[in-house]
Amino acid sequence: MLLACDIGNTRTKSVLFDKSGSSNFNSSTALNEIIDNYRNKNISAVAFSSVVTRKSEEFIKLIKKNLKISPYQITSSSKFNLRIDYLQPETLGIDRICSAEGAYYLFNQSKEFKDYSKNDFIISIDFGTATTLNFVKFPGVFIGGIISPGIKMMTELLNSQTAELPKVSNLSYKKMIGRNTFEAISSGVVNSTVGLLEKSINELKIKYKARKIHIYVTGGNSPAITPHLKIKHKLVNELVLIGVRAVYEKNIKSKL
């Protein structure tokens, strides 16, 4: 089995893949929790993406010591299933590439793939520490995206950069016009995020003549936003990890 991991700024997500699919999805704050969760599993390989260099080095040491495996780290020099059409690709976050790779992989397995054609777009959206949108155009070209503050970052900035606004830990969005300060902040955070997505979709249709748009959503903050999305989308918790698997197989040239 392949253990796929994604080391983020806040949490590390992991999942096991075998021939039948994925299992044991986990989201942890500490790297050593991964070892505890998978120590007795029949793991033959480990692949991971990371946006935190310090954690990457720690993770490699932990895997080598406890699982006796040299993990494969996805970097900007890895081979990808997508063609990366991005200025300064070495600055592109590996989690963003893997998110897009995961969406592209799932779309290729879907019924809609048979109708895939020019002016069709695939978008992966990750509601994490940052909210990121990653755009893939036909026939499989990563063309760039959008990076915006995540919902937790927004609420913390409103608290830390103002004298009177409170810190909101749990959004309580009910309607656009907040009747108290907590509701007003919740409305601002939710509507600014949803508005960004809706504007992006509209721009694709008008400026890029998008015919069909296939949207895949992931990230720890998804539960706070997806109930308010009116655009059609698929929520996939392990989206980035599916991308990690897809890139691993592209580079190692082995199937589970």
Would you kindly provide a written description of the structure presented here, covering whatever features stand out?
Helix 6 links the parallel strand 10 and strand 11. The chain folds into 2 domains: about 70 residues, 2-Layer Sandwich (Nucleotidyltransferase, domain 5), CATH 3.30.420; about 130 residues, ATPase, nucleotide binding domain (Nucleotidyltransferase, domain 5, 2-Layer Sandwich). Helix 4 packs across helix 5. By secondary structure, it is of the alpha/beta class. The mean pLDDT is about 90. The chain contains 7 helices and 11 strands. It has a 6-stranded mixed β-sheet with strand order 6-9-8-7-10-11, sandwiched between helices. Helix content is about 35%, strand content about 25%.
| Average residue pLDDT | 92
CATH level 1 class label of the largest domain? Alpha Beta
State the CATH topology of the largest domain.
Answer: Nucleotidyltransferase, domain 5
Helix content: 25-40%
List keywords for this structure.
256 residues, alpha/beta, Nucleotidyltransferase, domain 5, 2 domains, 6-stranded mixed beta sheet, 5-stranded mixed beta sheet, 7 helices, 36% helix, globular
